[in-house]
Amino acid sequence: MTNLGDSYALIKAPDGTDKINITVHWSGRVVNLDRQKNETLKTVITRLKRSLQKHKPTPHVNVQDIRDPYMLAFSNYVCWKKPADCKAPECQKQNPSEDVDSTQGHDGSNKKGCDVDNEYSIQFMKKMFEPYDETETLEEVAKNASFMSINGTILQLHKNAFRLLEVSIGSNAMIGCPVSIHIRSDGPWSHEDIYFHWVNDEGETLCKRAVFVPDDDMEGMNVKLRLYHKQLKWNRIESDFCEVIDVPRNTWQEDRIIKFNDDIDNCVVSPLQSNFRDLRVMSFNILSPTYVATEEAIERFFPYCNPEWLESSYRNPLILREIMMIKPQVLCLQECSTGAYRDYLEPVLGQDYHSWLTIKSVASDEGCCMLVQKCVLDVKDVKSVTFKDEIVKPYYSEILNRIGAPNWINFDIETYFSRYHTIFQLGCFKNMLDFNANYLFVANTHLYFHPHGRHVRILQTFVMLTELEKFKRECAKKYGFNLETQSSTVICGDFNSFPSEGVFQLMNYGWIPSNHPDFEYGMKHTHEKFKPNEHLRSPDSKPEVMYYPLDPKDRVEVENCEGYQDVYKDTKLPFTNFVKTFHGTLDYIYHSRNIRAKRCMPGIKKEDAEEYEGLPSKIYPSDHISIAADF
After folding, report:
1. DSSP 405-467
2. What is the DSSP string of 483-499?
3. Most buried by CB count within 10 Å: which residue of 226, 286, 466, 566?
C-alpha cells in the first residue's frame, strides 16, 4: 500500500531530451505535465492552472499510516504554510464552489463564471521564497527553483527524484536464503535513497538492510518489508506478508564452502597481492529461465527434475544463498536473465555491489552479469563487446582467411556469424583496499554451447582476448599506470570447452596454430539443433604439447597477449556441469601470470550430484556448480 502524501511537487529534467516533466499532487488533484525546456514560465503556469481546473479531486482512500520510531522526526515534513514575511500573494477566489466542477468550453475558453487565472495562484520560487519572473524559461526554473506555491500552500520542489510506488517480496521466505525484493518506482532508484525495515506481524523490526536472511528461529513467522524514501519523507510503502519456511539442507554445498574458507594459503610472492587481504572471485552459470520455460525444454534437458524446482521463485533464493555464503568481491554470472537481475540480484545485492547486465539478444533475454563489491573496488571503466559485430570488421578478415573460414559450410561473412550472440563484459577497477592502489581487469563471457562448434568458440575466444588487450591499454593510457607492474587480470566464464580443445590452448598461450584441428569443424558443422542424447561430448583429455611456429602465417596470435593460467590447473575439477546425459568441466577462472591463486573452492563428488539424478535439483538451483578462487 502506498501513501504519496497530501501535497507535493516533483520536477524531472532527463538528460538528452528537450522535455521536462512536472508532477503536482495538491488538494486531491494529481497533475502530470510534459513541457518543452524552452517554454516560458508563464506558459507553463497557464497549463498547470488549466490542468488543475480539469481534474476533480481523487476519491479518498483509507491508507494505513506506516510509522516507525526512526521516522517520527520526519512526520511533519510534507508541506507547510508560507512564512508570515513571504511575498507570495494569497489566492483570492471569486467563487470557491466552482473550483472543482468548472471545465473548459469546446473552444478552449473557460465557461461563464469561471476565471481560471483567478481560481489559482501559482508561483515558482527560489531558496529565499523569491518568485521567478514569468519570462524565465522552464529549463532555468528546473535547475534552480526550490519551492512552488499553489493558493498559498508552499510545497518543496523535489528535482529529479523518483517515487516509490510498490514493493513486493517472495511468496515465501526461505530459511538461510536472502528474501527477494521487487521495487516499482517511477524512475531509477538506488539503495542509498531508501530506508529498509523488515518487520514481523507484531511490528517488531527484524532487519534494517536490503539483505534479510531468515534464521532457524523464524520458521513459521510472517514478515514484510517497509520502505521509506530518504528525500521524499512522505513516500512510504510496504509489501504484503510472507511466511518463513524451511528449505532442504545442502550438506555438500556447506561442506565445500567451509573447506574453501579454511584452506591454507598458497605462498604468495607477487607484489600485486596482499598477504593480509584476499580478493575472492566467483563465477556461476545460474541457468536462465529461458531454457526451462516450456515442457519441451524441460523434457529435452532436465526430464529428471521436478518442474517446481525449476521455477524462478524457487531457484533464485537458492542462487542468492550460494552467493551470500561465498561472499565474493568479484562475481561473474552467466545465463542471467533480465527478471533475475531486476527482481532478485540488483535489489538484494545492490546495496553492497556495483553491477551491470549485458543481454545477448531480446529473444534469449539472458546474458552475462558482473558485480563488484563497492567497498573494495572502484569502477573506472566498463565495456560490453558483441562477438557477431566485431568478427565481421576488417581487423579480423585476415585471420579468417588464414584459418580457412571461406571453405566452411555456408560461409558468408555477412550472415555466417549473425546467429552467434556471445557477448564479452570487460571492466577496469581500482582496488581501494590495496596500499599501492593497483588496478584489476575483469572479463566475463559465455561461449557457444554446441559440441560441434569448436571453431566458433576459438574465434570467440580470440576476439575476447584481442578486445581485452585493447581495453587494457586504453585504460592504462587514460589513468596513467603500468600494465605489468600495476595491474592484474581475471577472466571468468562458461567456456563450454574441454582442456583438449583449441580454446583452452589459446587461453593458456595467447596463440594456436592456424591449422588447428578444431577449425575443421567449420567444414562439417551446420548449426543443427542440439539434442543432448544424440550429441554426447567426447571424454576429456589432456591438451597436446604445442610448438611455437616461427612463421606468423602459421599461427593465430593475440597481439600483446602472453596467455593466462587456469586457477584449477593443479587441482582439476571432475566436473562443473552435471546433467543426466553429460558431466564435465566447462567453467573456468583464468588469471594473468603476475598473480597467483591462494586457494580454490573444491568441486563436488559424482554421488552428490546424482542424489536427485542430476542438477538442478531440490537442493541446488543450477545445472552448473559455482567456482571460486582467492587471490
Report:
1. GGGSTT--TTTTTTT---EEEEEEEEETTSTT--EEEEEEEE----TT-HHHHHHHHHHHHHH
2. HHHHEEEEEEEE----T
3. 286
Hey, how many other C-beta atoms are within 10 angstroms of the C-beta on 328? 22
| Percent residues over pLDDT 70 in the chain | 85
**C-alpha cell of residue 121:** 495562484
Instruction: Quickly list DSSP for 312-335.
Output: HHHHHHHHHHHHHHH--SEEEEEE
Q: How far apart are CA 128 and CA 138, in angstroms?
A: 19
Q: Please, where are the H alpha helices in 210-356?
A: 251-262, 295-301, 307-310, 312-326, 338-340, 346-349
Write out pLDDT tens, residues 382-411.
Answer: 999 999 999 999 999 999 999 999 999 999
Letter string b/e over residues 480-495, b meaning 16 or more CB atoms within 10 A of that residue's CB? ebebeebbbbbbbbbb
Phi-psi region of 496 (alpha: psi -120 to 50; beta: other; left: phi over 0): left
Q: Is the dihedral of CA 355, 359, 362, 365 positive or negative?
A: negative
Q: Do residues 26 and 155 make contact, with C-beta atoms less than 8 angstroms apart?
A: yes
Residues 6+ apart with CB under 8 A from 539: none
The reported pTM is: 0.82
Q: CA-to-CA distance for 292 and 379, rounded, in angstroms?
A: 34
Strands 439-446 and 587-591: unpaired
Instruction: Cite the DSSP H helix spans in 133-238.
Output: 138-144
Instruction: Give the 3-state secondary structure of residue 529.
Output: coil
Cα–Cα–Cα angle for 264, 265, 270, rounded to 5 degrees: 170
Sequential DSSP letters for 573-590? -S-SEEETTEEE--EEEE
Instruction: Measure the CA dihedral 383/384/390/396, to 10°.
Output: 50
Give the number of other CB atoms < 10 A from CB of residue 259.
12
What integer best gives the mean pLDDT of the chain?
87
pLDDT digits (tens, 9 = 90+) for 362-387: 999 999 999 999 999 999 999 999 99
C-alpha 119 chain-centroid distance: 48
Q: Round to whole Å and give the CA distance between 218 and 470.
A: 52
